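A further point concerns the way the authors explain their paired sequence and structure data. Nothing conveys this as quickly as seeing an actual entry. An entry of this sort, consisting of the sequence and the corresponding backbone structure tokens, reads as follows:
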Amino acid sequence: MVRTETPVVDTSFQVPEFELPGVDGKTYRLEDVRGRNGLLVVFMCNHCPYVKAVEDRILRDVRDLKEYGIGSVAIMSNDPTDYPEDSFENLRARWEEKAYPMPYLFDETQEVAKRFGAVCTPDFFGFNADGYLQYRGRLDESRKETVPEAKRELFEGMKLVAETGEGPEGQIPSMGCSIKWKDAG
């Protein structure tokens, strides 16, 4: 597994349109998941040890951000060929098991990940109500090991976005496994 870090936030980047199937049998577009004060898009998957280590805290933050008008969506863009844990059926099982408070979408063509510029799992994209990127940092200081009492950087950053329309200064990149891209040939 190749460890990758996200690039610095680019506040001129606007949320791209998308239309993807959810594991719940519905198809979702941007307007279906956007909240009144912003949107959190989380590129994640089932097999990544970085995601597994923080998954419960991601779900906690998504639940807590709803009260601030932040909509959320999880997108899985890996090629599941070599990672069967990331198959559509296994995504659905995980979504049900963990009672995800957001849709879990499957980006089979990987085009959505490319439009966003996603590089790893987890990769967080926090947009304001106008659709501009304001957060591209990490969940907290934990990596594969949980740091007790870690500051909730993602939650606090997105709460600030909901309240002011702008993200925090000095964001620390997220780190995780690289997206598993399909072979070009």
Summary: The two ends are 21 Å apart (CA to CA).
